[in-house]
Structures are given as structure tokens and as C-alpha cells.
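2024-03-11 09:14:02 DEBUG pipeline.ingest accepted 1 chain
2024-03-11 09:14:02 DEBUG pipeline.ingest length=530
2024-03-11 09:14:03 DEBUG pipeline.predict start
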Amino acid sequence: METSNNNNNSNKTDDNKRCPQHNKKQRIICYDCNEIVCQVCMATKHNKHDIDHVFNLNAQFTSNKKIKRFDTRLDSLWETLQQLAWSYDTIQITHIRVVNQFRDLHEYLMMREQELKRALNDELEKTTTSINNIIDEIANINANSYRTKPKGDDGDDDGFDIESMNKLVQSIQSSKSMDQFFDKEFIASDDVKWCDDQLMDFVRRGSQAIKTVHPVTRPIQYEFDTFFMQMKIIDLLDDYVFVKEPTRIEHGFRNHIFSLSKDSCSMLALDTGVWTVINDKCTPRGDISTSVVYARGNVYVFGGEGSPNTYSRFSLIEQKWHNDLEIIGIDGGTGISACYDGKQHIYLVGGLHNGNLLNRVDCFNIDTQQFSSVGRMYVATRGSYSLFRSKSDEMFVVGGYVDVDSKCLHTYTLSFDTITKIYNRSIISALRKDQKIQACYDGMENVFIVGDQCLLVNIKQLAERRLEGYDMVPDDPHWSCLYTQSHGLVTIGGSGHNSRYSLLKDKWIPLEDYDPVESRQSFGTCHIYH
């Protein structure tokens, strides 16, 4: 930045500038022509142009070091800069996701390659050993001959190298008889002279070797339908990798998991593994593991032990809690199940209020901040998982306890039509009544139910099946389980217990994060998808 002396010198120099045509001081700027002119030029050539005088410019600059004319430009530059920052952040996060997705696919293909090669190598080693043993026996039987090539590169007994073995196999296959093969691979010697005892011992060892059975390994052949396999891979990438116009957000928590218990909350950035601790405090609330939901830039938590008749709203833009907002017109309670329809409504299902289980289906309008009653389920539950399918305006309710003490699980998956406002249908489940479960929705057709087994419920076909053979059970059924497009199934249990499930590897893989909370048992969680 220039000093005041430099400014004074600059102003002095400016004062000496004169119009070459009229010898007048040039103290007027014409914005239309982008020229600095004198008073006479202004009157004759620029009288109807957009102009400004140095006195006015000096007054503006002296008062706030800014020229008003540039305010609009600065606003435009700032808006463009924000858009570029949004583009950079989106591209950078997408780059990370591409790397992670293709790394998993690459590792899976490498693993399958090693599995196939391992079986082949095992059989190849057995086959090579048998061939070598038979060649040795042939050499022993023909005492007056020796092999034309050494067993190894150094003539040791560690077996043929792959090149020598390939040549030996070709020799076997191209020979039409033992004699022909013998002539290729052995050289006869006339110098062998044995006494009777040596001859008898040679015959004895040969006779003993006759009893040896050399195992014949089975030939293995893998066939690859190369064209169709490659075509399927291309089709899969075309169908499941697509360019999507990202939703512009004003907060910086896209693809985060929000985790809340009592008055403590924090967020995990799935793409970077970084935790953000929220310093602003929520009204302490217990029994809210199914009561936390994300909608339109805000996280809502309804009821809960300690404050059952109010709700709190956390603004991601402000990073601030709005606490003790009254639940008016419907019952509050604990163990309320909440889900968002993707538009303007959050649905509240069941719960425990004043010692009574509820079978209610109520609604919270985000725009009006008003509650209203919608309908009734045929069974009263608490702590169930409600999931919304926007394609059909249906809500599905999974699990939940049908007793006050939360010991008896409701084992059906229920469907509720939010248009007709009535209970519609149910899916019989293989769940046990004494189970502890977590449930999450992939946003399309499938609901994952995770307990001491994993069930996949197709809500379009109203069918359920157990995922046999999959190690899909987290260590603690009280941990939160969510589905995200970037990481698939994710479980959040606290420090050292946060992981994602890899279907390709058939196991839970630890997330690379440093969770500040030791245990997140029974925390309320939700996914901030944008």
C-alpha cells in the first residue's frame, strides 16, 4: 500500500496534467469513452456522456476508500468468486469419490484375480511336482543314462524353472512313445559298471518305486466371455455413473453425518473424514435415536426425554440451535420416529407420551412451522424407523417396540399412504421380537434392516430376503446405521467404531476418521446429503 507522501506526489503530478488541445487541467473522467478530459472537452465532445469530476471522486475515496461506481462490479466479482469456489469444492469432492470408487473396484478385481490364480498355482505346483518325480524315477530306472538338462538354473533339485518346465511339457506332448521322449531328454552312457551287490540294490530300489502312485491333477480351464463381460462392465458404468447437476447449498456440510445425544452434537464429513464439533448447545434430549431428521438446510429433533413437548431446529447456515419450540396441536413424546418427504413435510410416527404408546401419524409443515394430524397406524410403537418413498408418496415403518419398556419388537414392515391417509399394507418379517435393529433406506426401492442378521426389504415388490453369507452385522445394534450414495451402508458407533460396508469385500471397513466421541451408542443421526 502506498504511503501518504506517495499519494501527495501522485496528486501533484495529476494536477499538472493538462489537455493537449485546450491546455486545461484534466479533472473529468468520461465513462462512456473511458477518457480523462478537461472542462472544454466535456462541454464540446462529452456533454451527454456519463461523467464524473475529480472532486466527487476525491470525496468518495476520502470518506471510505471506495468508489461507488465499482460497488456493482465488486458484487458481481464476489458472486462469481462464490460460484467458482462452489465449483472447485464440488469438483474436488467428486474427484475424491471417483478415486475411492475405482480404488474399491480395482482392489476387488485384483482380489478376484488372485483367487483364480491361487487355485491354478496350487494345482500347477502339484502337477509340476508329479512330473519331476516321474522324470526322476525314469532316470533311476535307466541307470546308464542322465538327463540332458539340469533341474534348476544352477542344476539343483529345487525343480525346473517355468521356461524349462514348459519345454519339458512340450517334449512330452510331442513324443509318440517313451523311447522317443527318452531319446530327447536323456543321454545314454556306456561307462556304468556295477558289481552284483550294486545291481541287486538297484533292482530293489526300482521295485520299491513301482509301488509309488503319482497323482494326476485335474486340468482346470476358466472360460471368459470377453466381449459380453466387457460390455456388461461398460453398461454398469454407463447406468450407475452419471453426471448430476449438484444442488447449490449455502452451508458447507454437504455429505455429512449429523450425530446428536443430549446437548452434544457434531458432524462427520464422509468425503474427508473430518469431524466438526458444534459449540452451540441443543436443549438436552434423551431417547431421540429415531427423532432426528434433516430437511432443507436444517436438522430437526422432536420431543425426547427432558423436553417431550418441544422440538429444536439446528440451522446449518447459522450453525445455531433454535431451542424449545413448542409442539402445538399434536402430542409430543419420546421415541418419536421422523422422516422427510423431500418437499415440505416431516412425518412423525408413534412414540411414548404420558406413559401411553402412540399409533399416530402426524405431520410438520416446514414452510408454516405448523403441526397437524394425518392418520393412524394399526399398531402403536416407539423407536420405529420411518422411511419415505417419494415416487409413491408412501411411508414405510420398520420395527419399533410395542411395549413401554422397549423389550418387544414389532416384526412387520408397514406401509402408509400419505395421500389417502390410511394404513395400506405390511410385509411379514423374519425378525425376532427380542431383537435390536437398525434400519435405513437407499432412497430407491430397498430397506436394509441390520441386527444379528441383515434383511433386504424391497418395498416395491413387498418382498423380504435375508442376505445370506454377508458379514453385515455391526458390533453393537445400538449404533446408528445409515445409507449414503457415496459410501453405501455406514455405521456410526464412536471412536474406532465408525465403518462402511463393502459388498465387494463382504466386510465392514473402518472409516479413516478421528471421532472425538468414544461411544455414540443410541445417538440420533441423519445424513446431510446436500
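2024-03-11 09:14:41 DEBUG pipeline.report The radius of gyration is 39 Å.
2024-03-11 09:14:41 DEBUG pipeline.predict end
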